[in-house]
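Tokens for chain A. Residues wanted.
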């Protein structure tokens, strides 16, 4: 048990954990402390009170800061998968039926108007409109997930856990760096939203100056938007690495399970039978059910796709932040 605990601590202290969890948590805690200090007065007054305090109070303050940092980093590290799914658009039914439907409709219209060259690595094919996700990151990762399905007949959800242990260390390093960059930026975006909303609520409650309130709310929202845009670029890169993994190393998995593709055998049908066996226990010698054919996207009617501006989830979020800032400035001006 002791050796296992040391191994877990070494994993937490790794470079990926520092970059993806510890640094965003440290920045968040420092900025939160700054917001709390400036909400009670100027930063100069807070610094003067710290210098005049006793050493016992300083030790307690540092211990409390370290404890808060550990709690935030631990919670953030355990919620990385949930953050990715939240950014992809896998939401609860009420959000999926309201904001999710609005986001999917917006991106479907974008796919219809764009050319294939500009959307091939950022959106699912336009022949599969039901696979469009309500967010940009969700569409980029969904396009990477559908790539092995459309190219080789591979169900990525079933095959990836079996293929990942067979990847070489050099490729795993590159893949892990891409995923760490994605999770770090998503964590930074999430913490920026928490700081913007929580800090602005605190400043409004203590009747802080209006410029400080707007700086916390709108500055945090702008930082979250910038981190999300960076995470989108990282998601595209991560999706490209996933495609390369299936292109180069899918044969290694077939050899590992003892079912290489025979001479003259259709690889796509071979993979479909193997995925059916893993998913439903259907023996590989049965005939695989063919994947659903690609259906052309129907032309939108005027009622479904009105011309002009179509709001997205990002537009709604920006409008909410702007309205909250104006309402807070009018009702809680210091």
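Reply:
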């Amino acid at each position: 048990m002791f050796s296992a605990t040391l191994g877990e601590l070494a994993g937490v202290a790794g470079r990926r954990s520092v970059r993806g969890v510890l640094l965003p948590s440290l920045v968040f805690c420092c900025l939160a402390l700054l917001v709390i200090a400036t909400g009670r007065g100027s930063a100069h007054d807070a610094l003067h009170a710290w210098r005049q305090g006793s050493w016992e109070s300083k030790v307690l303050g540092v211990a409390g800061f370290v404890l808060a940092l550990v709690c935030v980093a631990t919670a953030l590290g355990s919620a990385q998968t949930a953050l990715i799914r939240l950014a992809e658009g896998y939401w609860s039914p009420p959000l999926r039926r309201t904001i999710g439907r609005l986001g999917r409709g917006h991106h479907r219209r974008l796919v219809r108007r764009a050319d294939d060259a500009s959307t091939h690595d950022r959106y699912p094919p336009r022949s599969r409109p039901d696979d469009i996700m309500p967010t940009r990151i969700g569409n980029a990762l969904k396009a990477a997930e559908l790539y092995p399905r459309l190219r080789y007949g591979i169900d990525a959800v079933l095959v990836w856990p079996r293929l990942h242990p067979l990847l070489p260390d050099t490729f795993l390093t590159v893949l892990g760096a891409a995923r760490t960059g994605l999770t770090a930026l998503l964590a930074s975006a999430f913490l920026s939203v928490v700081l913007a909303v929580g800090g602005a609520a605190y400043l409004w409650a203590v009747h802080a100056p209006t410029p400080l309130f707007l700086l916390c709310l709108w500055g945090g929202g702008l930082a979250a938007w910038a981190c999300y845009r960076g995470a989108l670029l990282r998601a595209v890169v991560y999706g490209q690495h996933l495609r390369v993994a299936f292109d180069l190393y899918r044969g290694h998995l077939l050899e590992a399970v003892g079912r290489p593709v025979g001479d003259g055998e259709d690889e796509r049908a071979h993979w479909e039978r193997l995925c059916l066996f893993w998913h439903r226990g259907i023996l590989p010698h049965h005939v695989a059910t063919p994947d659903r054919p690609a259906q052309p996207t129907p032309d939108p009617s005027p009622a479904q796709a009105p011309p002009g501006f179509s709001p997205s989830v990002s537009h709604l979020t920006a409008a909410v932040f702007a309205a909250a800032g104006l309402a807070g400035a009018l009702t809680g001006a210091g």
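The first helix runs from residue 2 to 12. Residues 1-13, 296-307 have pLDDT under 50 and may be disordered.
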